[in-house]
Sequence to fold (158 residues):
Amino acid sequence: MPQDIRFQRPEQKQIQRPSLAPKLLDNTKKVIIWLVILIILALIISFFVNKIRNVDTANQYLLSDGWQAVFLNNDQTYFGKITTINDEVVVLESVYYLQDQKDLQAGPQPKEGELALVKLGSEVHGPNNLMIIPKTSITFIENLKDTSAIVRAIEKNN
Fold:
């Protein structure tokens, strides 16, 4: 009877190869982080560029040597020359506003609806003839024609 001869195989060591998966994961995370950073930077830059562009757009429509009417949220209107406009405020100089005649006169009452053009600075508290108006208070701004009744009255007073 033949004898069984058995050979023992040498134990095979499993060779551990470095896995590419963790490295790929690390690289993917880095790429995603950089993309997020770049997107955030792009948004910040576009925000500031739009702010600058909006201010420039408003400035390009204002007549530098003309008169403007500034209409506020509280239904008041001021007339003057805009000297500065930025993200936060509009500076109005040589300021005038309309006031009801009956508020100005103690004598015989004027007709209903008669308005007087008043120059800022003649009030009791004695303000300078300049207003710094927050943009959040402004509804809109209009350029006034040289032929408007307001401009003619202002120039007549000067």
